[in-house]
Amino acid sequence: MSEPKTAETLTGNAAKAAYDLLTAEDDGRVCRDIPEPLCDEQPRNFSTHVLSLSLSKTADALINPKLILSWILTTLGASQFVGLLVPIREAGALLPQLFIAGRVRSLPLRKYAWALGSFLQGLCAVGMAVAALTLEGATLGWMIISLLTLLALSRSICSVSYKDVLGKTVGKTRRGTATGSAATVAAAMTIAYAALIASGLFDKINIVIIGLCLAALFWLAAALVFSTLKETEGATEGGANPVTVARENLRYLIDDRELRLFIITRSLLVSTALAPPFMLALKAESMQESITGLGWLLLASSVASLLSSYVWGRLSDRSSRKVLLLAGLGGGVSLTLTVIASQGNWLSLPWLLPFLLFSLMIAYGGVRLGRSVHLVDIADQDKRAIYTALSNTIIGIILMLTSLFSIIASLYGEVVVLAVFALMSFASMASAYLMREAQA
User: For position 121, which CATH number holds?
Assistant: First the structure.
């Protein structure tokens, strides 16, 4: 008589089925570049990554500073704070990582660092929901900015620890598939939420606050799920104080050609992340503050992610270098067409700008997945946290400097800024071409 199936057995079977479905047609090298004891645990770990990352990515979309938080501040009388949202969100998540890397490296099991960061982001989202319900004006603005700062710092903990955990628990040819699958699930969930907003059937502020509450719930659940990963203890050397860690890490910029090329490529490709607000500014008068307009923007972004994330992930497992090449090409073409359309007064066509934004977001999806997989695969297990922190810190500094583009736009117009972004995207192809094939 067969033994009764336990909940753990059923969960393991479900994880194995999901793993087999998502990694179909892969070659037999299932345990490349991960500790041997974790080979049998890979299907379960793979599914855990997909679930927890799906939850956290959906939460990210539900508090999107470029759209959701900007709309809240504008609607509730705190529009003067809108310009601080993106710099705080992006630079705040990246700059601390050079110092956090040493502390994360001192932890034998780094999954708990990611779980802590996710948990803290959930608490910040709760605070934002309460603030949006009870405050307005400058008081609301300062509260949202403060909570976003804490959320960004918490996100930096997740960012600096995630690639290291991913590299230890999922094989080299399956990492892009895991992150790409999670992005696809998150996009589908965000599309459903965006459709509710675009319908106009719900009270404007209430539907947005519900989204913040869902984001909090998803981050808390992601923390719980991620803590169940099967992870072996990693090297803990190098967990020195921040000053020592910074000094030791900076030498990699001189010693490691591949890291330098990666950082140059990633720096140029920030153009794909910075461009959307300037594209939307070309039709700002027609957008206004409509809640339905917010819904359509979320839909365009989410549909692009849904259609491209899994494909980008699978391609990244074969050649993350080529993914970055294609993303640079796609971003450059989208931005060039936007400039041409603006000069030709073709943006009056109601479908054209949404289409251009959609195509740019597909390229941006390739940038996010390609850079993540490439960094994991070019660094060995003992260097991943350091390389992640160093590259993210440099990008954080660059993002702070990109505030100059707002000045350029005010002096010469958004079209000039978009033309510069197009050139940056095309230029990234040269440095990406020079990088080695990390998956070879």
Answer: 1.20.1250.20
